[in-house]
Design a protein that fits this description.
This protein has three helices and six strands; from the N terminus they run H-H-E-E-H-E-E-E-E. The chain is of the alpha+beta class and 130 residues long. Helix 1 runs antiparallel to helix 2. 25% of the residues are buried. This is SnoaL-like domain-containing protein. Pfam families: SnoaL_2. InterPro entries: NTF2-like_dom_sf (IPR032710), SnoaL-like (IPR037401).
Length: 130
């Protein structure tokens, strides 16, 4: 079984122009997926609305994984997401992520905390904006 990871999921969701959102989501997220970002829960529908919004804002970027650990059905990483917005500004966030895999290797649940390293104060909620 192949398992997804944060870099692959973020690359497909935000950094691969032309890849259909539902196709990208189906590659990495189970049907019962839910996520908590900085204390706010979202189900799969709300999460996809968030990603759809980000796709209107993001022009490009990169994901750098600093630490990554997988054990059984658990996964954790610390990564930095750099986003180049369509207005030319840059946002960099460090993310601390803990996840649970579904039996098929897709994410079933992610809980994450974000730390903004660079960007305008208005970008602070980029990790959960809809």
């Amino acid at each position: 079984m192949n398992r997804t990871d944060a870099r692959a999921a973020l690359t497909d969701l935000l950094l691969t122009p032309g890849l259909d959102l539902d196709e990208a989501a189906d590659r990495h997220f189970a049907p019962d997926y839910r996520q908590r970002t900085d204390g706010s829960w979202a189900d799969r529908t709300e999460f996809l609305a968030h990603i759809a919004h980000l796709r209107t804002v993001v022009a490009g970027g990169s994901v750098q994984v600093h630490d990554e650990l997988s054990s059984g059905d658990r996964y954790a990483d610390r990564h930095t997401m750099e986003v180049i917005k369509k207005d030319g500004s840059t946002v960099r966030m460090e993310v601390y992520l803990f996840a649970e895999f579904a039996p098929d290797g897709r994410f079933r649940r992610i809980e994450e905390t974000t730390l903004m390293l660079e960007g305008d104060e208005a970008d602070r909620n980029l990790g959960s904006a809809r």
